[in-house]
Amino acid sequence: MSAEQATPQTDMPFQAERPLIFMGGVGYDEQRNKKIAARIIASTGAYGSVITIPDEEPGVSREGMVVCTPGGAQEKPLPSAIGLMRSLDDDSESRFTLLHERRARELVDAIQKRGSEPVDAIFQSVDASTGILAMRQNPELFRRVVLLDPSSIIKLPSGKQYLHEEWRNGNLREMIRHQKDPAEATLFEDSLPRAEKVQSKKRSLRGGNAIASYISHQASMLHEVAQSDQSPEISIVASRFDHAYTPERLLQALVSIDDIKTFFITNTRHGLSGKQVKLDQLVSVLTGATDATKSYFQKLHFAEGVAEDYRTKIVDIVASIVDKK
C-alpha cells in the first residue's frame, strides 16, 4: 500500500465565468479574501469573478454557539477563556457558532444572487465552519471545495491533555525543530501595510471568530454534506507542522475517508500567509483531476520534502481506519 508521492495531476474542466470563493478565517477580512482569490484566479486563469461577504459591522457583539447532540441542538453562550478549556471535553456530536451560521447564510445568499452555475470555494482555518454550514444548507451551490488547514473538523481535547498527547507522539518536538524550507519563505503578493493588516485582523475577530476556531467541530456535518445527492467534491489540504490541526488529527476526526476526494499534506505550518509554494499546491488540488474510484490510499498526496517516516505514519493511520470499516 502506498500513497501518491506527487501533486495531483492538473485538469481544467472550467468555464471562464465560474465564480471563486476564498475565505481565510482569523486575520482575513473581505479585502484580503478578495486579494487572495484574485491571486488564485491569476494562477489558474480559470475563474471570472470573486464572491465575498461583507465584514462584520462595528459594535457587533459576540454571538453564542450551537451544541448538537444525538438528542438535538441547543444554543449556549460562548464560553469564557477558562470555560473554553472545560467545554472542549463535552460529549457533543458537533458544535459551531451563531456567527458562522449567519456568515453561511450570507454566503448562500451571495451565491444565489449571482445566479451562476455551482461555484468553487476555498475555506481556510476557522472559515471551514462557514463553508461546511453553507454546503449543508445548499450543497447544490458548490462544485469543488477545498478545506485548507480546517479548524472546524477536529474536536480538540483540553489544553493540558492536548500538550500531553502532542509531546507523547513527538509532534511538539518536530514543530520546535522544524526549519522553514526556502520555498516556504517565498511570498506571493499578500502583504498589506501594517495599519491595514491590524484593522483586517480586528474586523475578522469580531463576533468571537478566534474562540470559534477552538470550540467548533463539524466532522459529522461534513459527512452529512458528503452523503447528500448533490454533494460537491470536497478535498483537504493539511499542514505537516500545524500547531493543532495536524493531518493525523484530521484523518482520525473524519467520520469516513469517503467524505473527501483528495487529502494533500504540505510541508508547511498553518495557513496560506503568502507562501507561494503552498498557493501552488492549493491550486493543484483545486484544479486536479478527481476519480471516484480511487482507493483510500490513492486519495493521499504528499508535498516534496515530507519525510518518509511521516508518510508511512499517515498511510498506517489510513490503513487502521480502513480495517475498522
Structural summary, described in words:
With 325 residues, the protein is α/β, with parallel strands linked by helices. It has one domain: Rossmann fold (3-Layer(aba) Sandwich), CATH 3.40.50.1820. Helices cover 40% and strands 15% of the residues. It is built from 12 helices and 10 strands. Strands 2-1-6-7-8-9-10 form a 7-stranded parallel β-sheet, with helices on both faces. The protein has a 3-stranded antiparallel β-sheet with strand order 4-3-5. A hairpin with a 2-residue loop joins β3 (65-69) and β4. The longest helix is centred in the N-terminal third of the chain and has 17 residues, at 98-114. Residues 4-14 have low confidence and may be disordered.
Outline the fold blueprint.
Layout: E1 19-23, H1 30-44, E2 49-50, E3 65-69, E4 72-76, H2 81-87, E5 94-97, H3 98-114, E6 119-124, H4 127-137, E7 142-148, H5 159-168, H6 171-177, H7 194-205, H8 209-215, H9 219-227, E8 233-239, H10 247-253, E9 262-266, H11 276-287, E10 300-302, H12 308-324
Parallel strand pairs: 1-2, 1-6, 6-7, 7-8, 8-9, 9-10
Antiparallel strand pairs: 3-4, 3-5
Helix pairs in contact: 3-4, 4-9, 10-12
Q: Spans of 5+ residues with little confidence (pLDDT < 50)?
A: 4-14
Shape: globular
Structural class: alpha/beta
By CATH, the architecture is named 3-Layer(aba) Sandwich
In the CATH hierarchy, the third-tier topology is known as Rossmann fold
Could you spell the SSE succession in H and E letters?
EHEEEHEHEHEHHHHHEHEHEH
Task: Tally the beta strands.
Answer: 10
What profile does the largest beta sheet have? 7 strands, parallel
Distance between the termini: 17 Å
The residue-averaged pLDDT reads 83
Number of separate structural domains: 1
Using only C-alpha atoms, the radius of gyration works out to: 19 Å
Strand order of the largest sheet: 2-1-6-7-8-9-10
Q: Percentage of helical residues?
A: 40-55%
The level-1 CATH class? Alpha Beta
Assembly type of the shown chains?
single chain
Number of helices: 12
Strand content: 15-25%
